[in-house]
Design a protein that fits this description.
One of its GO terms (cellular component) is mitochondrion. The protein is α/β, with parallel strands linked by helices and about 210 residues long. The protein folds into 2 domains: about 40 residues; about 160 residues, L-arginine/glycine Amidinotransferase, Chain A, CATH 3.75.10. The chain has 4 helices and 9 strands. The protein has a 3-stranded mixed sheet with strand order 1-2-3, with helices on both faces. It has a 3-stranded mixed sheet with strand order 4-5-6, sandwiched between helices. Strands 7-8-9 form a 3-stranded mixed sheet, with no helix packed on it. The longest helix is centred in the N-terminal third of the chain and has 24 residues. The two termini are about 25 Å apart.
Length: about 210
């Protein structure tokens, strides 16, 4: 993951680079322990933030934002040659998943703001697949974590009713899902969302 350092002074940039480097090494070791392939971006001009990468199970959408550029999207496309990779301009917000995420197989959860709806329209135009959509009133509430778990089925982690009561009412329409509200009040203070705090790995439970 690379992040934009625009607007930071020299000392702040150095501290951010050190922190990101430490996080990168820790994540690399964890992925090695799971015997997963690791692809590193050698191009210093490439930036790619995980919050800009939406994998639908069929294809990738990559948000072009302050944290992700075209070169980063190209490197991702080169790493996943079996999947289509389309870029989506992020007109407002931190990154693509600030206003959308996957809520289940073929289901995109999307915020109701104009920038979010414009991004969805672009994704629909670029894709050969027809996705269902679940529109929530609050963009930040559209960031949720979907899991298909053994003996549990469809499980969705989403923000709480205390944060976004109207959006939670929309999630409650997903009758086939096990809904688990998760508070994000502290993480949002540092631009954190539910997907920022999760890495989903398709491995057997005994790993």
């Amino acid at each position: 993951m690379e992040r934009s350092t625009g607007g930071l002074d020299g000392e702040e940039k150095e501290m951010l680079a050190k922190r990101v480097g430490t996080q990168t090494e820790a994540m690399k070791e964890a992925l090695k322990d799971l015997n997963l392939n690791i692809v590193e971006m050698a191009d210093e001009n490439a930036t790619l933030d995980g919050g800009d990468v939406l994998f639908t199970g069929r294809e990738f959408f990559v948000g072009l934002s302050k944290r992700t550029n075209q070169r980063g999207a190209e490197i991702l496309a080169d790493a996943f040659k079996d999947y289509a990779v389309s870029t989506v301009p992020v007109l407002e917000g931190l990154h693509l998943k600030s206003f959308c995420s996957m809520g289940g197989p073929g289901l995109i959860v999307i915020g109701s703001s104009e920038p979010a709806q414009k991004a969805l329209k672009i994704m629909q135009q670029m894709s050969d697949h027809r996705y269902d959509k679940l529109t929530v009133p609050d963009d930040l509430a559209a960031n949720c974590v979907y899991m298909n778990l053994p003996n549990k089925g469809h499980v969705l982690l989403h923000c709480t009713a205390e944060q976004f009561p109207e959006s939670v009412k929309v999630f409650e329409k997903l009758k086939d899902h096990m809904l688990i509200p998760v508070s994000n009040t502290e993480k949002v203070k540092v631009d954190g969302a539910l997907t920022c705090c999760s890495v989903l790995v398709d491995k057997k439970a005994n790993i």
